[in-house]
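4.2 Preliminary Data

To establish feasibility before requesting continued support, the project team ran the inverse folding procedure on a target of 98 residues. The structure was first converted into the token representation described in Section 3, and no sequence information of any kind was made available to the design step. The complete token record follows.
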């Protein structure tokens, strides 16, 4: 079985490899904007969970379910912190701060 690096993917019609995710693709303003927009959607989805999960915990019918939801809430809080750090590192923190 042929192995591939992150730099190449197969070109199935002739078996040769082609470049994959070259640096210049990430420097492109349009790609960068798309990346930031995707991150914003993920961030706001996580924020929605911060509101929804406590309601689910209150309505949980078993202790196991409530415990699982509390664990998920902690993961969600961690995701938000990591996303905020990422936005800060790319100079886009103002995109998510109200």
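Position-by-position output of the design step:
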């Amino acid at each position: 079985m042929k192995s591939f690096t992150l730099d190449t993917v197969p070109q199935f019609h002739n078996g040769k490899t082609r470049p994959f995710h070259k640096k210049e693709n990430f420097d492109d303003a349009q790609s960068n904007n798309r990346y930031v927009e995707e991150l914003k959607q993920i961030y706001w989805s996580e924020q929605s969970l911060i509101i929804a999960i406590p309601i689910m915990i209150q309505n949980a019918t078993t202790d196991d379910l409530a415990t699982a939801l509390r664990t998920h809430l902690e993961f969600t809080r961690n995701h938000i912190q990591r996303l905020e750090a990422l936005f800060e590192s790319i100079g886009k923190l103002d995109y998510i701060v109200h």
